[in-house]
Amino acid sequence: MIESFNRALDDVTGWIFEAALQPLMYEWGLMDWADDALEWLEFGLFGVFSILVVYLVCRPLEAWRPVEPVTDRGAIRTDIVYTLLTRLGLLPMVAFVLLASLQAWWEGSVADSGFVPPTIETAFPQLREMPLLAFAIYVVILDFGEYWRHRFQHSFRWWWALHSIHHAQRQMTFWTDDRNHILDEVIAALWFGAIALLIGVPPGQFPLLVLVMRLGESLSHANVRLSFGRVGERLLVSPRFHRLHHGVLSTADHGKNYAVLLPVWDWMFGTADFKRDVFPQTGDPEAPEALATGGWLRQQWVGLKRMAGAILGQRAA
Question: Is residue 101 one of the residues assigned to a domain?
Answer without folding.
Answer: yes
